[in-house]
Amino acid sequence: MLPSICLPTIPSCGCRRNKRDTAARLPIIQGNTTKDSLCSNNAIREIILKNIKPDPTKSKAAIHSEMKSKLGGNYVVTCSNELVSFIADASNYCVDGNDTQTCYVFEI
After folding, report:
1. Which of 63, 70, 80, 88 would suit a FRET pair with 20, their CA atoms being 20 to 30 Å apart?
2. How many Cβ atoms are within 10 Å of 32's Cβ, its own excluded?
């Protein structure tokens, strides 16, 4: 039979890694929202809906042109027939479109 050996124990420091809160954090959405739109500015929404063309490139150009002439400022405009994933930090924005195309407008 082997002799038992007693090893000194190291006291725990209580320095365990804290787990991050993994609960989904939803953004605070201000403005008009529906199932298909997310807008902080209804004027942008109206410009998007008025200028949707069959070709996303033409929609983008028409929306951007009217945004500059009617609202001034600098905007990023993207239109796509596919869903787009993005992160934006803008207080003046709108995402809207029709059954075949969605346009995203953010003031920069």
Report:
1. 88
2. 14
All residue ranges of the chain with pLDDT < 70 are 1-37
Please give the Cα distance from 48 to 44 (Å, whole number): 6
CA quadruple 27, 33, 43, 88: dihedral sign: positive
Report the share of the chain in percent with pLDDT over 90: 54
- The length of the chain, given as a count of residues: 108
Q: Quick one: which of 108, 8, 101 has its CA closest to 48?
A: 101
* Helix spans in the chain (H): 42-50, 56-71
Predicted TM-score (pTM) of this structure: 0.66
